Amino acid sequence: MTQVDSGPLEKTLKDFRDHEISGATPTARDTFERALYAHLSWRRGAQSLVGEAIGQAPAFTMAHVLAAYLDLCSRDPRRVQLARAAHARAAALAATDRERLHVTAIGAALADDFETCSAILHRLQDLYPRDVLALQTGHSLDYLLGDVERMEARLAAALNAWSQDVPGYHSVLAMRAFSLVEQGDHARAIDSGLSALELQPADARAHHAIAHVHEMAGAASAGIRWMRARRAAWAEGSVAATHCWWHWALFHLTLGEVGAALDLYDRHVRAARTGDVADLIDATALLWRIELLGGCIGFRWQHLATDWAPHIEDGYCSFTDIHAMLAQVGAGEWPAARRLERHLLRHAPAPGRYGETTRLVGLPSCRAILAFGRGDYGRVLDLLVAKPAVVRRIGGSHAQRDLLELTREEALRRRRNAGSELLVRAARRQGSGATTMAPSPAV
Predict the structure, then answer these.
(1) How far is CA 86 from CA 81, 94, 126, 363, in A?
(2) CB 61 within 8 Å of CB 23
(3) Around Cβ 302, how many Cβ atoms within 10 Å?
(4) 177, 262, 346, 391: which has the fewest C-beta neighbours closer than 10 Å?
(5) Which residues contact 388 (CB under 8 A, 6 or more apart)?
(6) Which residues lie below 8 Å from residue 268, measured CB to CB, with a gap of 6+?
(7) Residue 84 contacts residue 107 (beta carbons within 8 Å)
């Protein structure tokens, strides 16, 4: 059981970046900083550590704020709702102006007003440029919304206030590395990621950003070497281990090594068969790519479809909807796939973020996936025509959203092959003296 720190509260106690913090004790502050480090570096243990900090100082406002953020930046609405309790506790405590802005930002996100939340986080960054939690949360929000320009602008604006002697600088560099690769600036992304790792070799986020560079640059063999040489840093004690295994498998697919990718799926991506939405997304995206390349899937789709079933009507994230549809179509679970389509039809007219992304991308993409599963490749090509700037509204990275373009390319290939096969059959019939008759006009 966590012991409450019996030491006196210090009215001017500050965090490691010189911000005043309310309700903390030195012991709780140090525990909070360990939790924050874990969160920023994508290491496990952040939630247990922030719980420990709250146990040591129950009135520690920023500890409750961090607890809320840990659940808030998720694609799983069940997990997002868990942030409400931490938000309510933080709102009831004494707070500095900075802390009140954090509480207000969390409230806006819980109300599904991500634009207001992002604006408040921008204001926090303007007023307190070393508020790394505001920067981290804004970065995550930009990723969830697919706002590449705002992501890069947010990081570029922060850099002047940071230096290597400020705790957390490695995470700023790692975030910048990811924003740069999403902008297509691979050289600077590599530099920023390597600089982050010089400061903190265990920063799994920096390893992940450099894996993205290799993926987007088509450097699959180099990517495999990178992942293998640094496996301990991103695979052990990291919250991103499954996603990093996904990246490794993509490198094998780029090289045409479908069997190797399927082996990584079985041994690492789905070994634990967690119900975590992020893990389900990675597993589904990998399995669909493997099937597009002719891999033998067996019963794997059925297992995924079962684990996706509770999320079919989440009604929260179009990126999630698309992957849920992939799993149902891959498994041939047509009733579940149609149920998801009906759900999207109900939500498409709704105002707000989810209704808009459903109309623009979620519904047409899910219908395209349905059409692909039925072999109606012409309809796939008709539906998957949205411009990249529109498609990215569902969030995720370029590497993740590329799945839709790969599906479109495969539909085009199959339709062309079907057309070629028809021509071959017609030529064979003509060569044998057979004739074909046009259908009679309807009477």
Answers:
(1) 10, 14, 25, 34
(2) yes
(3) 15
(4) 346
(5) none
(6) 241, 242, 245
(7) no
User: What number of CA atoms fall less than 13 Å from residue 122's CA on the CB side?
Assistant: 13
Three-class DSSP category at 130: coil
Residue 336 Cα to chain centre, angstroms: 24
Tokens 């409450």 -> residue: 4
Q: How far apart are the C-alpha atoms of 358 and 399, rounded to whole Å? A: 21
Query: What phi and psi values does residue 126 have, to the nearest 5 degrees?
Result: -65, -40
- Buried-state track 66-90, b at ≥16 Cβ within 10 A, e below 16: bbbbbbbbbbbbeebebbeebbebb
**What is the residue-level pLDDT of the chain in tens, covering all 443 positions?**
444 454 444 457 999 999 999 999 999 999 999 999 999 999 999 999 999 999 999 999 999 999 999 999 899 999 999 999 999 999 999 999 999 999 999 999 999 999 999 999 999 999 999 999 999 999 999 999 999 999 999 999 999 999 999 999 999 999 999 999 999 999 999 999 999 999 999 999 999 999 999 999 999 999 999 999 999 999 999 999 999 999 999 999 999 999 999 999 999 999 988 889 999 999 999 999 999 999 999 999 999 999 999 999 999 999 999 999 999 999 999 999 999 999 999 999 999 999 999 999 999 999 999 999 999 999 999 999 888 889 999 999 999 999 999 999 999 999 999 866 555 555 555 555 443 323 322 22
Note the Cα 254 to chain centre separation in Å.
21
What gap in Å lies between CA 219 and CA 194, rounded to an integer?
17
Q: Hunting for tokens 């967690």 — which residue is that?
A: 274
Q: How many Cα neighbours within 13 Å face the side chain of 434?
A: 8
What tokens does 142 get?
């930009």
Instruction: Tell me how crowded residue 342 is: count the other CB atoms within 10 A of its CB.
Output: 11
CA-to-CA dists, residue 106 to 61, 148, 250, 259, angstroms: 13, 22, 35, 44
